[in-house]
Design a protein that fits this description.
Radius of gyration of chain B: 45 Å
Shape of chain A: globular
Oligomer: heterodimer
Number of helices of chain A: 28
Radius of gyration of chain A: 29 Å
Structural class of chain B: alpha+beta
Distance between the termini of chain B: 32 Å
Structural class of chain A: alpha+beta
Helix content of chain A: 55-70%
Number of helices of chain B: 9
Largest interface: A-B, 139 and 123 residues
Strand content of chain A: 5-15%
Largest sheet of chain B: 7 strands, mixed
Helix content of chain B: 25-40%
Number of strands of chain B: 22
Strand order of the largest sheet of chain B: 13-16-11-10-18-21-20
């Protein structure tokens, strides 16, 4: 087993299984309270973590030393790759990404065990059992289905196949680790929840323990999704950041219950409410990380990101079953201990806003989940293939999202327990006025500014229903923008009011000092508000796509084209070559309102490993108003004629700015209490680590904003080497020509049936899609209507060929089922709130009776003295609470 | 502090060593050094774990002190205090009016005071216990009794049985396929051997200076070069448009009495590509694709032949090659067939080719020829027209590897196969055998990989389905089931230990004993701290107020520990 490096790696996987099993066994014994077993379990957890590290280092060594005996190394690297990409190849394929997942899970487990120290002694053994169980699952998965150390079956090749060029991108190097960090760190809150359920210690102890872990997981999921959007925006070259792809959805789904939990946990901490709900949210978050992985890797749902179909899906099904059965079983048996202690004092309270917010977030999650798996469900249950493209989500989801967005703005205006009507109206005055002014101004002047109040949307259904849906959807960008103003003003007002209140208590403090102290004393609250601002700005970035302009043009050197305020002049092509690729750059000069802005170099990269698939390298010029985004489609080597796709992506950069603010806000909430804790080297290291990670991720996203105009052609390239381009052919892969809105509507409604994963004819760049578009254009030229052409396409290719399943028969279930569930949940929330409100009234009566009885029985003078003492102590404790 | 310092020193040294190795010997060696460090850590922590399990190693007083930390009971108070604090903040920022604030604050203050009273009651008990213990200890010391020494965990029954288990593709088809040995072999068997084979006249596509720009002249000829008049033809144009991508149009033509047809006004340049197709006697014949020059017209000569579907009457043979490569649990099988037609009749083919039942990812590649493999049902069919001369067709599929060290399968091949070569990428210990083929020989592929090559030549009739056997395939780790079993047993043992510890009186007694020892450690550590505090007060380094506050806290902690000792 140990006579070669690959065998050694496989041996280490065996050792991980044994070590985790040993640690589980010892931790189980430790549940009975013997501290030596607990010490043994902790050391076992460290040993398991170190073994996982060893496995990763062995594989990394395999990559760096080009050990092509290892099949995974041969498939995902070659000798030309730089050490950075060789390291990134660790998670470039399925086997390695599972090992990387295991590694990050082990890091989370080890850090958790270290952080636990001697705290939470009753919970700790069970936490270790769950964490080690998770590691054991992934190690067994690799041993049985996806061994990254498996030998190359056909002997050792002289060179490897190399990493897919689409993964050779800065964001793709850091996106998967961020996503996996988000996924794997969700294991820790889950482990605590299970431990609390098993030990029946369901008070706030475990909630305190998990809050920061969940926030950490949430933060990395947010960062990962943003980096994924950046990658899609920069690398895929279709002009947008999010396409509601199954894998994108899978990455977003756990983020929604995690967001809900971060709000509802405050209700348990402060009021002892929503105990069952919090356990459910944590379990659901973890479950969805596994579910998303299963979706991505089972090959059941096609996606541009999905790994190849493999046999590991069934292992994930078993694992999900175990998680579901254990979690549901424990929750059901612990229901009496999970009863809510609190009551609702008023309908005008933050508690109610949080309840509504949780309902909204979970409704979005349910809707996205159903829509993501609908193609599977439709085929299994209705025996009819179905597809749901981005237009479906873009027209159905915004009402829910905008409601949650409104609640996000309204909740900070409400106080805990009770807010008087007058106070609420006073707090609403400025934000509502600002939003109204913005809305009116936008409606009147928007078209003049390039942001019309209503924008035309593609219809997704034939008939009046589809037209009405599209008509209403045309207002979503405007409504979003108005709510952005509302949200940002609310947060600004909260900061101003907070600083003013603080300065009333400490008049000598200047505004900046008061702000510093205000945020420092309530990091969670004000960090959270900053996250709200970030999300509002991200929403603005998404909404801006509605006002974007797409244009296509073919130019000869020296010719210009005008798009909105921009003038683009094609200078000519240039060719550069390095060891791994030939780059064909199209140099263009861009000016805005006559003022030169600079030269861009959109490009096609032709990699030696895949010469038939030139990659599209986008170039863009960024400003706060828009992105001038250029993709070069074809360059004729003879005539130098080039075709360009030009997108003016309005407000898109607010997406990245918003993401940076989200990171900043979350980091403020997470900021360690280093000055209040022990001041030792480890605490300072923690502080430095936190600062460094904030800086790194802020830089990563800042880079995206500041790197406008930087094309992929700026990698180190040698000038004018020998070209590998056949001069008789045209470079044409990677672009889609769309001439008008009618074409866009038709192409976006149909799926390319070439075998591309779920891509519509609007975005698919393969030859097959080109041919289909030609045919469809011919049909349009013959005067056929869009529904007629769609019907003919479906007759030819089947139901799966429609980008959005038709709104007929059982296919309506795709929106009816989540709709009914969401309405039922809303009814449930209202019923729950009313019950809590009644309970509050009963409790108040009981308290009043008890108080009366005590007053009658006690000596009034002695009672008053005792009360005065208690009041003084209480004031002292309140004073000390945040100091 | 001492242990942490050591850890810090060792960590810094190890980091420096690894960085040094990385710089001097390269990144790969640096990573290997990290691996070595990880291995050392695995062994060290495992040793520490086993030592702790068997009661070896010191328990830190710090660990015991955590037993004195309140947990659940303070949470409720903290929540009420937080509620009051929030309320005050919200009053300050105007979210709650004075009336509501007064009402709610009064309620929460009442609740907080109730909890404080409850805490006081508990604290009084804890302090009483602590005072009693201190007094008792003081008295015992006064009588020269031995002070409690910090104990280490004794040796309660070892209930847990410890199980320690340390524990190119071939990049296309092989070279050397250019020769037509197969056709020679076939020719020797052909009836009437010895005579001269039919020489197919070459199709032509040449720039014709005499023709105007944009003009195409098609000359349709028969097998002997005779003109074929009044034959319908089609001109297929593939237009690569900048804005619309690729589109295809067709135009019908007909040969005149001289067998010619002429088209004018065609587009030229690289964006237009043309082919001429003719349907003749049930067969389909096509010219090679061509583009028009921007200097003059183009002349294309195309030959059409009489056809037959009866293979027995035709001089058709094939030479095949098959490449076997391994891709993520599957065997990739790529077939390529060179077809030769030595007669003057074209073969209108419709020949099925079987593929293995479990084959997946069946792909046919278009070679722009008139005869090619197409999918039909679960298998493949060679369809189209093979005119005199050479043709080429290919297909591929994948066969799942079953996980055993040897695998057999049958390769279906097209008819009239005279020679077949099979090459497989192979590692050491692997073997390839095909029934009736020569023993496989080791060779090297174009990309430098080791391959096994075998071939078979038809003696009297064409090769039919080929039975292939591969041996020496790497199998999944053979220890995995054993390891899984041991791991499952270990966990089961952990569960058994848990149940034993819960139910066995002896085990519970041992656990109680251990818990008591731990609590005693905590108690002793707290008593020691109280003495240090007294000493510091006497030395004047702690003021009276601080002293009192710290003493109260420590006395409560001591009380909590003593209460737990009582409970145990």
């Amino acid at each position: 087993m140990w006579n070669s490096l690959p065998d050694f790696g496989t041996g280490v996987l065996h050792a991980i299984v044994l070590l985790s099993a040993y640690t589980i066994a010892v931790a189980l014994a430790a549940t009975q309270g013997a501290s030596r077993y607990l010490r043994a379990a902790r050391a076992g957890a460290y040993a398991t973590g170190a073994a996982v590290g060893l496995a990763v280092f062995v594989l990394a060594y395999g990559f760096l030393s080009h050990d092509f005996r290892i099949s995974y190394v041969a498939r995902y690297s070659d000798r030309t790759m730089s050490p950075g990409y060789l390291f990134a190849a660790l998670w470039g394929g399925q086997d390695g990404s599972l090992l990387w997942w295991l590694f990050l899970s082990a890091v989370a487990a080890t850090v958790c065990v270290r952080w636990l120290g001697h705290r939470y002694r009753e919970l700790q053994p069970w936490v270790i059992v769950v964490l080690m169980g998770n590691l054991a699952f992934f190690a067994l998965l690799m041993l049985f289905a996806s061994n990254p150390f498996a030998l190359q079956v056909g002997g050792t090749p002289a060179d490897g196949a190399g990493l897919n060029y689409q993964l050779r991108n800065f964001y793709m190097i850091i996106h998967p680790p961020s996503l996996y960090i988000g996924f794997t760190s969700a294991t820790v809150p889950f482990a605590f929840a299970i431990a609390a359920l098993i030990t029946r210690r369901l008070d706030n102890e475990w909630i305190h323990a998990t809050r920061k872990w969940m926030l950490f997981s949430w933060l990395f999921l947010a960062i990962a999704n943003t980096l994924g959007m950046l990658w899609a925006y920069e690398e895929l070259g279709w002009g947008g950041p999010w396409a509601w792809d199954a894998v994108e959805n899978a990455a977003m789904l756990p983020w929604l219950p995690a967001s809900a939990y971060l709000h509802s946990t405050m209700m348990q901490e402060r009021r002892g409410m929503l105990k069952v709900w919090n356990v459910v949210l944590i379990t659901l978050t973890f479950f969805l990380t596994i579910f998303g992985t299963w979706l991505t890797r089972s090959g059941l749902i096609a996606s541009v990101h999905a790994f190849a179909q493999s046999g590991i899906g069934i292992f994930f099904v078993y694992y999900m079953l175990i998680i579901a059965v254990v979690s549901i079983g424990l929750i059901l048996t612990r229901l009496p201990q999970l009863r809510s202690e609190g009551q609702l004092d008023s309908a005008l309270s933050r508690e109610v806003a949080f309840l509504a917010n949780n309902w909204g977030l979970m409704s979005i999650m349910l809707f996205v989940l159903v829509a993501t798996v609908w193609p599977l469900l439709s085929e299994w249950l209705l025996d009819r293939p179905a597809s749901l493209g981005p237009n479906f989500y873009n027209q159905w989801l915004p009402p829910l999202a905008l409601l949650v967005f409104f609640l996000m703005g309204a909740a900070p205006l409400l106080g805990w327990r009770h807010t008087s009507r007058a106070a609420l109206l006073r707090a609403l005055r400025i934000p509502v006025a600002a939003a109204l002014v913005a809305g009116v101004a936008w409606s009147l002047k928007g078209a003049e500014w390039g942001f019309p109040a209503w924008v035309k949307m593609n219809t997704i259904y034939a008939g009046e229903f589809g037209q009405r849906l599209a008509y209403v959807a045309g207002f979503y960008p405007l409504i979003t923008a108005v709510l952005v103003v509302f949200n940002v003003v609310v947060v600004a007002q909260e900061y101003v009011v907070g600083v003013r209140a603080r300065r009333r208590g400490a008049p000598t403090e200047s505004w900046p000092v008061a702000l510093y102290h205000l945020v420092g004393k309530a990091k969670r609250r004000y960090g959270g508000y900053l996250v709200h601002v970030g999300i509002a700005l991200m929403m603005l970035g998404f909404a801006g796509r509605g006002w974007g302009v797409d244009h296509e043009s073919s130019l000869k050197p020296g010719q210009s084209v005008q798009v909105e305020d921009y003038t683009m002049t094609y200078v000519g092509p240039r060719r550069v070559v390095d060891t791994e690729k030939t780059a064909i750059l199209a140099e263009v000069d861009v000016a805005r309102d006559g003022q030169p802005l600079g030269r861009l170099t959109p490009a096609k990269f032709i990699y030696a490993a895949s010469p038939g698939q030139p990659s599209t390298e986008v170039a863009r010029l960024s400003s706060l108003r828009d992105d001038f985004y250029v993709v070069v489609g074809m360059i004729n080597p003879e005539t130098k004629l080039a075709t360009f796709q030009i997108h003016v992506n309005t407000l898109i950069n607010w997406l990245w700015i918003g993401a940076m603010i989200v990171v900043l806000g979350a980091m403020i909430s997470l900021w360690p209490e280093v000055l209040l804790e022990r001041r030792n080297p480890f605490a300072y290291m923690k502080l430095i680590g936190g600062t460094a990670s904030t800086a790194v991720f802020a830089f990563a996203m800042g880079f995206a904003v500041l790197s406008g105009g930087v094309s992929g052609g700026q990698l180190a390239l040698a000038e004018d080497g020998p070209t590998r381009v056949d001069p008789t052919t045209m470079l044409r892969t990677g672009t889609v020509g769309i001439r008008n809105d009618e074409e866009r509507e038709l192409f976006s409604s149909l799926i390319c049936m070439c075998g591309c994963p779920r891509e519509s004819l609007e975005t698919c760049t393969c030859d097959y899609a080109h041919e289909r578009r030609s045919e469809l254009r011919a049909q349009m030229a013959e005067g056929k209507s869009i529904p007629e052409i769609q019907a003919a396409y479906v007759v030819r290719f089947g139901d799966r060929a429609l980008a959005v399943t038709p709104n007929e028969g059982a296919q309506r279930l795709v929106w009816v089922v989540p709709g009914v569930a969401i309405a039922a949940a809303a009814f449930g929330v209202v019923t729950l709130a009313r019950r809590w409100r009644r309970r509050d009234q009963v409790k108040q009566r009981e308290e009043a009776q008890t108080q009366t009885a005590r007053t009658a029985a006690a000596d009034p003078q002695q009672e008053a003295q005792q009360d005065a003492v208690l009041n003084r102590r209480l004031d002292a404790e309140l004073e000390e609470l945040d100091s | 502090v001492s242990a942490r310092s050591w850890i810090a020193v060792v960590a810094v040294l190890a980091t420096a060593l690894i960085v040094g190795i990385g710089i001097w010997l390269g990144a790969a060696m640096g990573v290997l050094a990290l691996g070595a460090l990880a291995l050392v850590l695995v062994l060290a922590f495992l040793w520490q774990s086993i030592a702790a399990l068997f009661g070896q190693g010191d328990r830190l007083a710090e660990e015991s002190l955590w037993l004195a930390v309140p947990s659940g009971e303070t949470e409720q108070k903290r929540a009420v205090l937080r509620a009051l604090k929030d309320l005050a903040f919200e009053r300050n920022v105007g979210k709650v009016n004075a009336e509501d604030h007064a009402l709610l604050a009064a309620r929460y203050r009442e609740e907080a005071k109730r909890l404080l009273r409850q805490e006081d009651t508990q604290a009084q008990e804890w302090t009483r216990l602590a005072e009693a213990h201190l007094a008792e200890q003081h008295s015992a010391e006064a009588h020269a009794a031995a002070a409690d020494a910090p104990s280490t965990v004794g040796g309660p029954a070892r209930t847990l049985l410890l199980i320690v288990v340390a524990g190119a593709g071939l990049a296309g088809i092989l070279g050397g396929m250019g020769g037509m040995g197969a056709s020679t072999a076939y020719a020797q068997e052909a009836p009437g051997g010895g005579h001269t084979w039919y020489q197919r006249p070459a199709d032509q596509s040449v720039v014709e200076a005499a023709l105007p720009i944009g003009t195409l002249k098609v000359e349709l000829r028969g097998a002997q070069g005779q003109a074929l008049p009044q034959q319908p033809m089609r001109l297929i144009t593939t237009h690569a448009s900048i804005s619309q991508g690729t589109s295809t149009t067709t135009r019908d033509l007909e040969s005149d009495a001289a067998g010619d047809a002429q088209v004018e006004g065609l587009g030229f340049g690289s964006s237009n590509e043309y082919k001429v197709e003719v349907l003749h006697d049930g067969g389909r014949f096509m010219s090679a694709p061509f583009q028009l020059s921007d200097q003059s017209g183009q002349r294309v000569r195309l030959h059409a032949f009489k056809t037959s579907t009866d293979l027995r009457s035709l001089l058709v043979g094939m030479q095949g090659s098959c490449s076997l490569t391994f891709k993520e649990g599957k065997l990739q099988v790529d077939h390529l067939y060179e077809m030769v037609n030595l007669g003057d009749h074209a073969w209108v083919a419709n020949a099925p080719v079987a593929v293995p039942a479990d084959a997946v990812a069946i792909t046919v590649r278009s070679e722009m020829a008139t005869a090619e493999f197409v999918r039909q049902g679960d298998g493949l069919v060679l369809k189209g027209t093979l005119g005199p001369g050479l043709g080429r067709a290919s297909f591929s599929y994948q066969i799942p590897l079953l996980g055993s060290s040897a695998q057999d399968f049958v390769l279906g091949v097209p008819p009239r196969l005279a020679q077949m070569q099979i090459a497989m990428e192979a590692g050491p210990g692997m073997a390839l055998s095909v029934a009736d083929f020569s023993p496989a020989q080791w060779s090297q592929s174009g990309d430098g990989r080791r391959i096994l090559v075998t071939q078979g030549v038809a003696d009297s009739s064409a090769l039919s389905a080929l039975r292939v056997r591969i041996e020496g395939l790497p199998v999944p780790p053979r220890w995995r089931w054993l390891v899984t079993g041991v791991a499952a047993m270990t966990v089961a043992l952990g569960v058994a230990s848990l149940l034993y510890l819960q139910r066995s009186q002896r085990a519970r007694a041992a656990l109680k004993e251990e818990r008591l020892l731990e609590l005693r450690d905590a108690r002793n550590a707290l008593v020691l701290e109280l003495r240090h505090l007294d000493a510091e007060r006497d030395a004047g380094s702690v003021g009276p107020a601080s002293y009192q506050r710290m003493r109260d806290e420590m006395m409560r902690a001591l009380g909590r520990v003593l209460k737990q000792m009582e409970t145990v």
